[in-house]
Design brief:
- About 50% of the residues lie in helices and about 10% in strands.
- With about 475 residues, the protein is of the alpha+beta class.
- Strand 7 and strand 8 (about 400-410) form a beta hairpin.
Length: about 475
C-alpha cells in the first residue's frame, strides 16, 4: 500500500506533538521535583532528625505517653534501647530534662520548642500532655536520628504492636526492586509515539485515498461510483464528505441520464416530421396534381418543427440558467387573469370554459417572459385535457406572503406512477399521446418556476381530473 504525502504530514505532525508534550511533561515533573527538594532543604533543621523513621518513633511514643503516662513510655524506651534498633528519642519535661536523664542539646531543645506546633516529616516534634497531667516534648536530635535503624524500612518501631495488626517477624533488609533505566524509558516513549502517530495518520489519510479514487472513477465516466460503503462505521466530517460526494455523483448520473434521454427523444421527435416532409416531396414528384396538398403538408410540418425547436431552445436556456433575461415589475394576479381570459376564448370554441378567481395584488420582480410561458403552458394544458362541457378552475392569490396559483381540470387525470415524471421533457401519458404536443410544456413550466425559487406540483383531483399548484415568493 502506497502512503501518500498527506499520511506523512499527519504522521510527523502527530509525532512532533507527542514529543513536545512528553518533553513538556518531563520538564514539569523535573522542575516540581527540584522545587520539592529545595523546599525540603529549606525546611530541614540541622539540630533535629527527620524522615519517616523519626516520625514513626515520635508518633508512637506520643500515643503511649498520652494514654499510659510516664511509666508506659519509660517501658517503651527501655525496650527500644535493649534492642538497640530505635533512634535516641528524647522525652523532655518543661524544665528541659529527659526522662531517662540523657543529655539534651540546647540547640536541639530550642529548635524542638519552635517546631512544637508543627508536625512535619523534615523534623517531627510532638508536645504531649501525659496521663499524669504533665507536659512533655518529644523529638529526635540530629546526632542520633538514624542510630540503630540502618536497613530498616519505614514502619512502626520495633516492640510496638499496633491495634488490629498482628505482630510480625523482625524487619529484614530488602533489596529495592530493579527499575528500568532511563534509556529504556526513552526508547519505550519513542516507540509508543511512533505507533500512535502512525495509527492516527493512517486513520485520517485512508478515507482521503478513497475519495481520490472515487473522484478519478467519476472523471473516467463511472457515475455509479459510491464512496460511503468504503467509509465503514466512520461518523465524522470526512464521512459526511463521502455522503455529499455520493449525492453529487447521483445528481450527475441523473443529469447525464436525462441528457441522453433528451437527445434520444429530440432525435425521435425531429425524425417524424422530417420523414413526413420527405414523403410529401416524393408524392409531389410522382403526381404533379397533388402539389398544392403536398405544399400544405410541408408547411404544417415546418410549423411543427419550428414550434419544437422553439420549445427546445427555451428549455435549453432554462437549463443553462436564465440570469441574463431582464427582470420586470409584474402583478402576477393580473398576468394570470390575462392568460385565463385568452384561454377562455379558445376553450369556448371547443365547448369548454375557464373560471378565474383572483383578488388583490401580487407585485414582484420576475423574468416576465418565462413566468408568462409557465402560466400559459399550465392553463392551456388544462384546457386541452378537460372534458367537453366542463370548466377549468383557475385560482390566484397571496397566502402567507407567497403567490399561489391553482389550476384544476376535469380531464382523465394522470396515473399515480406518472405524477413523479410528468414534468420530465417529452413525457406524455396515455391521454397526451392522442392530444398531440411534444411533452415539453410542463418541463418548461417547472424550470421557469424553480429558477425563480418557486415550486410546482401535480396531483389528481377528487372526482377526476388533474390539479396543478404553483407557489412563487414575492421579491421586492
Amino acid at each position: 500500500m502506497k502512503l501518500g504525502r498527506l499520511f506523512w504530514k499527519f504522521f510527523f505532525a502527530f509525532w512532533l506533538a507527542l514529543l513536545l508534550a512528553g518533553v513538556g511533561v518531563g520538564a514539569a515533573v523535573w522542575w516540581h521535583h527540584q522545587a520539592d527538594l529545595e523546599q525540603r532543604e529549606r525546611e530541614r533543621d540541622p539540630a533535629l532528625a527527620g524522615g519517616p523513621r523519626a516520625g514513626w518513633a515520635v508518633a508512637s511514643a506520643a500515643a503511649v505517653l498520652a494514654h499510659g503516662g510516664t511509666p508506659a513510655v519509660l517501658s517503651l524506651l527501655d525496650e527500644w534501647g535493649a534492642e538497640g534498633r530505635a533512634p535516641r528519642l528524647l522525652v523532655v519535661d518543661e524544665a528541659g530534662h529527659d526522662l531517662l536523664g540523657r543529655p539534651v542539646s540546647a540547640e536541639a531543645l530550642a529548635s524542638a520548642r519552635r517546631r512544637a506546633d508543627h508536625d512535619h516529616p523534615a523534623a517531627p516534634v510532638r508536645q504531649v500532655l501525659s496521663a499524669d497531667g504533665r507536659t512533655y516534648l518529644l523529638f529526635v536530635p540530629a546526632d542520633a536520628g538514624n542510630r540503630g535503624w540502618e536497613g530498616v524500612p519505614p514502619g512502626p518501631p520495633p516492640g510496638l504492636d499496633l491495634p488490629g495488626r498482628p505482630p510480625g517477624p523482625p524487619f529484614e533488609r530488602r533489596r529495592p526492586p530493579d527499575r528500568p533505566g532511563l534509556g529504556v524509558l526513552i526508547a519505550s516513549g519513542l516507540l509508543a509515539s511512533v505507533l500512535v502517530s502512525a495509527l492516527l495518520a493512517w486513520y485520517l489519510a485512508k478515507p482521503v485515498r478513497h475519495l481520490r479514487w472515487a473522484f478519478g472513477a467519476v472523471a473516467d465516466g463511472r457515475l455509479d461510483t459510491r464512496v460511503s460503503p468504503l467509509m465503514g462505521a466512520r461518523r465524522d466530517e470526512i464521512a459526511d464528505l463521502g455522503v455529499e460526494f455520493d449525492r453529487m455523483a447521483g445528481q450527475l448520473q441523473a443529469l447525464v441520464g436525462a441528457q441522453r434521454r433528451l437527445l434520444h427523444d429530440v432525435s425521435h421527435e425531429l425524425r417524424s416530421p422530417l420523414a413526413r416532409m420527405q414523403a410529401a416531396i416524393g408524392l409531389a414528384r410522382q403526381d404533379a396534381s397533388k402539389l398544392p396538398a403536398t405544399i400544405d403538408r410541408i408547411e404544417r410540418e415546418s410549423v411543427r418543427l419550428d414550434e419544437l425547436v422553439g420549445q427546445l431552445l427555451t428549455l435549453a436556456r432554462l437549463d443553462a440558467g436564465s440570469g441574463d433575461a431582464p427582470e420586470e415589475a409584474v402583478d402576477l394576479i393580473d398576468l394570470v387573469a390575462a392568460i385565463a381570459d385568452d384561454a377562455r376564448f379558445e376553450a369556448e370554441t371547443l365547448g369548454k370554459t375557464v373560471h378565474f378567481v383572483g383578488d388583490g395584488q401580487a407585485l414582484t420582480r420576475v423574468r416576465a417572459e418565462l413566468i408568462q410561458r409557465a402560466f400559459e403552458n399550465v392553463i392551456r394544458n388544462a384546457v386541452k385535457f378537460t372534458a367537453v362541457g366542463t370548466a377549468v378552475d383557475v385560482t390566484a392569490g397571496v397566502i402567507d406572503g407567497r403567490f399561489r396559483l391553482r389550476v384544476s381540470d376535469r380531464g382523465p387525470g394522470v396515473s399515480e406512477s406518472d405524477l413523479a415524471t410528468i414534468f420530465e421533457p417529452f413525457h406524455r401519458g396515455r391521454a397526451a399521446v392522442t392530444a398531440g404536443g411534444f411533452g415539453l410544456g410542463l418541463a418548461i413550466a417547472r424550470r421557469a418556476v424553480t429558477s425563480h425559487g418557486g415550486q410546482i406540483e401535480a396531483s389528481n383531483r377528487d372526482g377526476g381530473g388533474l390539479e396543478m399548484s404553483i407557489v412563487l415568493p414575492l421579491a421586492g
